C-alpha cells in the first residue's frame, strides 16, 4: 500500500541520498562485472526514469521496491537501508536486474525490523544518482484494532508467519562495517608553555562510525569553563583551548576516541613555566663625582636593586668600557657595582655612566671624573661669594656707621628727660 511520507521523513531520505552520492561506502560484488566499453563522448550519467515509492506494509506480508535507470554505459545498482549497504548475498533481501534498465529489491517475508528508508544508488563513470523510498511497517495487532473499530462484528483471520533468519557474516543484512578510530592529526607528545599564554591541542580522528572524543587531565575529565574550551570544527578537528595556562593546568592530557570498533588513545605531557616575579632596576646609591690626581686609583661605585639580577653596562661618554688589566668591573648579588681604574690618566677625565637592564626595565646614573696633573696644584675649592650685610643699604641711606654700631666699645647715648615737679 502506497502512502505519503511526512516532511521530516523526506528530509531524512534526502540527507541519505546526499551523503551516498558524494562519498558512498560501496562494496562491489564480483558478479557486478565491469562497465561496458563506451567512447567517452557517448557516455551519459545515470538518470532515474522511475523512482522508488513509499509503502506501508503489515508484518508477515511481502513487498518490493522497483526503479528504472537509463545510463551509458549501463549503471550498476547498489541498495541501502538507512544508509547502510545491503549485501547481494542476503537471503532476506533479493536483488533483481533486467535488461530494460529496471531493478528490484524484493522482501518476501516482512518483519518489523524492515521498517526504514531504502535507497537505490546508480553509478557509472559519468556520475552517481540515487532514489529513496520509505517502508513503514504496521503490526497485525494494530491493523486488527483499526479494522475492528470500523466493523466490530467482523472476524478477521490472518495468516501469521513465524520466520527465523540465520544471518551469517556472508548474509549480513544490511552490511555494517566498523573501523577503529585512528588519529591522523595530533599534538607533540610533550609541550612547554609559559604561564598566562594560550595553549591549544588539535586532533583529527577517522573511524566508522564517527568516533566520540573525550578529554582527560591526569585521569580526570576536563571541565569546560571560561578558560578551558572544547571545540569541534566543520572539518572534524577537535580542539582543547587553554585561554591562559597556569601551573594548575600542568600534567598529562589524554584524548580518547571511541566507536563500536574500539578506542584509540593519545597522551600529551604539558609543562607550564611559572611566571617570574620581576622588578625594574633602581639605583639606591648613585655614582658621585670625583677629582683625583694623575696616577691615583679611582673607584666609581653604585648600588642597584632589581629582580632578576640586572645586566650592568659601563660607558665613558658614548664608548662602552670592557674589563681589562687597567679597568676592572665588579658586581655582586647584593647589587653593588664598581668601576675601578688602576692608575688614572688625564685622558680618563670624562663623564661616566652605569646602566642596569633586566626583563622589567632599564635604569642608569652618571657622574663626572676630573683628573689633574701632579705638577700643578690640585684644584682649589670654589671661591665663596660674599653677599653684603643686610644692613648695608640702611647705612648708605641713613648715614649710620655700621662698624661703630657693632663695636663692643660703642657707647649708647640716652636723652635724660627732666623729672616733672608734679611727680
UniProtKB/TrEMBL annotation:
InterPro entries in the record: Ig-like_dom (IPR007110), Ig-like_dom_sf (IPR036179), Ig-like_fold (IPR013783), Ig_I-set (IPR013098), Ig_sub (IPR003599), Ig_sub2 (IPR003598)
Keywords: Disulfide bond, Immunoglobulin domain
Domain (Ig-like): residue spans on this chain: 46-136, 181-273, 281-370
SMART domains cross-referenced by the UniProt entry: IG (SM00409), IGc2 (SM00408)
Database matches in PROSITE patterns: IG_LIKE
Pfam families xref list: I-set
Family matches, as Gene3D superfamilies: Immunoglobulins (2.60.40.10)
Keyword Disulfide bond: yes
Name by which UniProt lists this protein: Ig-like domain-containing protein
Gene source species: Ciona savignyi (Pacific transparent sea squirt)
Taxonomic placement: Eukaryota, Metazoa, Chordata, Tunicata, Ascidiacea
Amino acid at each position: 500500500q502506497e502512502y505519503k511520507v511526512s516532511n521530516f521523513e523526506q528530509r531524512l531520505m534526502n540527507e541519505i541520498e546526499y551523503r551516498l552520492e558524494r562519498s558512498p561506502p560501496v562494496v562491489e560484488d564480483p558478479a557486478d562485472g565491469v562497465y561496458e566499453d563506451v567512447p567517452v563522448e557517448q557516455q551519459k550519467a545515470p538518470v532515474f526514469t522511475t523512482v522508488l515509492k513509499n509503502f506501508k506494509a503489515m508484518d508477515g506480508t511481502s513487498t518490493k521496491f522497483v526503479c528504472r535507470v537509463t545510463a551509458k554505459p549501463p549503471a550498476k545498482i547498489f541498495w541501502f537501508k538507512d544508509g547502510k549497504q545491503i549485501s547481494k548475498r542476503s537471503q532476506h533481501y533479493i536483488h533483481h536486474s533486467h535488461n530494460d534498465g529496471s531493478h528490484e529489491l524484493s522482501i518476501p517475508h516482512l518483519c518489523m525490523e524492515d521498517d526504514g528508508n531504502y535507497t537505490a544508488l546508480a553509478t557509472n563513470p559519468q556520475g552517481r544518482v540515487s532514489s529513496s523510498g520509505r517502508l513503514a511497517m504496521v503490526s497485525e495487532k494494530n491493523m486488527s484494532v483499526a479494522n475492528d473499530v470500523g466493523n466490530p462484528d467482523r472476524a478477521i483471520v490472518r495468516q501469521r508467519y513465524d520466520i527465523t533468519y540465520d544471518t551469517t557474516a556472508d548474509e549480513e543484512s544490511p552490511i555494517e562495517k566498523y573501523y577503529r578510530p585512528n588519529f591522523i592529526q595530533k599534538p607533540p607528545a610533550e609541550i612547554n608553555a609559559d604561564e598566562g599564554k594560550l595553549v591549544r591541542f588539535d586532533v583529527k580522528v577517522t573511524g566508522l562510525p564517527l568516533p566520540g572524543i573525550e578529554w582527560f587531565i591526569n585521569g580526570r575529565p576536563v571541565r569546560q569553563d571560561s578558560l578551558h574550551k572544547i571545540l569541534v570544527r566543520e572539518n572534524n578537528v577537535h580542539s582543547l583551548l587553554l585561554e591562559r595556562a597556569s601551573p594548575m593546568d600542568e600534567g598529562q592530557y589524554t584524548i580518547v576516541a571511541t566507536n563500536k570498533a574500539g578506542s584509540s588513545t593519545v597522551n600529551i605531557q604539558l609543562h607550564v613555566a611559572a611566571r617570574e616575579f620581576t622588578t625594574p632596576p633602581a639605583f639606591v646609591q648613585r655614582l658621585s663625582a670625583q677629582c683625583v690626581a694623575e696616577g691615583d686609583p679611582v673607584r666609581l661605585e653604585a648600588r642597584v636593586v632589581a629582580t632578576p639580577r640586572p645586566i650592568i653596562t659601563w660607558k665613558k661618554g658614548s664608548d662602552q668600557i670592557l674589563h681589562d688589566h687597567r679597568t676592572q668591573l665588579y658586581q655582586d648579588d647584593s647589587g653593588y657595582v664598581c668601576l675601578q681604574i688602576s692608575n688614572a690618566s688625564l685622558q680618563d677625565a670624562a663623564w661616566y655612566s652605569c646602566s642596569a637592564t633586566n626583563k622589567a626595565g632599564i635604569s642608569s646614573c652618571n657622574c663626572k671624573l676630573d683628573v689633574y696633573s701632579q705638577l700643578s696644584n690640585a684644584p682649589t675649592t670654589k671661591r665663596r661669594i660674599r653677599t653684603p650685610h643686610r644692613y648695608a643699604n640702611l647705612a648708605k641711606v641713613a648715614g649710620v656707621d655700621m662698624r661703630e654700631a657693632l663695636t663692643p666699645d660703642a657707647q649708647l647715648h640716652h636723652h635724660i628727660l627732666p623729672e616733672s615737679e608734679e611727680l
